[in-house]
User: Fold this.
Amino acid sequence: MSLKQWVIDLMLIPGLAGYEGRVRKYLKAAMAGLGITSSTDRLGNLIATLPGDKGAPSVMLFAHMDQLGLIVRKIEANGMVRVERLGGVPERALPSTEVLFCIGEGKDVPGLIAHKSHHATSQDEKYKVLPYPELYVDAGFKSAAEVLAAGIDVGTPIVYAPKVTELANGRIAGTAVDDRAACAVMIEVAKALVEVKKRPTVHFVFSVQEEFNLRGAVTAAQVLMPDVAIQLDLILATDTPDMAARGDVKLGGGPAISLYSFHGRGTLNGTLPHPAMVRLFEESAAARKLPLQRSAHIGALTDLSYVQLVGQGVASIDVGFPMRYSHSSREVCDLADLEQLTALLVEALPRIDNKFSLDRDDYIG
Assistant:
């Protein structure tokens, strides 16, 4: 199967944080198809290990398989459904968005986040963003009894209605590009590394609950105790008018590394990459003649921020693909960026051998 097909398939599988089972089932089968067995921990992380040189630093390569969304909070007597946010859902993008109540394969129920009729909207309301507690989902039901009979109850997970749209120039738009695109890249990297004889031990971790306060990958790291951690996730594309002041990361410009991330909105955490990892990816990109974009930003965070603190510290870096419109129901990535990210990782990982130093003093300029 091609990288493109992995991406499309994964984008169409619903998997709210804490409810990743269908995504995990797909990924487990994909890894098994490569001859790599995997296991699931109690939190739900899928861990697949490809053994390598025991004298080389071990690597945890990971991407989260969950997505953000909503949870049923209350069912109104008239059949409308009230919700809670799960993850950084942008409230201004919610009205008139199609959603899916995730009950089970073949049982899911479509719905629509209501948007007040334009003809009844006052002048002030036209410019107001409704807080999510004031929103409701209309699934067509006429009563609470009908909602319950359909399998929807308090606590039922809701995601953006799964969708994939192919745009011009190899761009793909749709749901959960964050981070299913990176999960697809992981499969392709695993496929390539199976054929590489000289490699470090690589733990492929498809993590859970990243969108719910960055939880899942930490438990995997505590068990695996890797020397190196490489997180694959989106890198904010800044090539649209509203983002131009934030950096120079372009969609279609190739993979990127993060040199600085900090949340800055209540979560005082972030990642400053280990110098050995920065050099590794710079040299690997040069060797393959691949572009390598650089990002430094406040406002986004990955679970690498916590993984890096496990044990005596893990040599860490965020590597990723440019993406537009994060956390909306239609995110956008470029397939060429994903292909080049795969090539970069396939070049970089075998370079982590028994002579690869993680001593920071070896990288002082």
Summary: The longest strand covers residues 228-236. The CA atoms of residues 257 and 319 lie 5 Å apart. The mean pLDDT is 96. The chain has two domains: 3-67+175-363, 69-160.
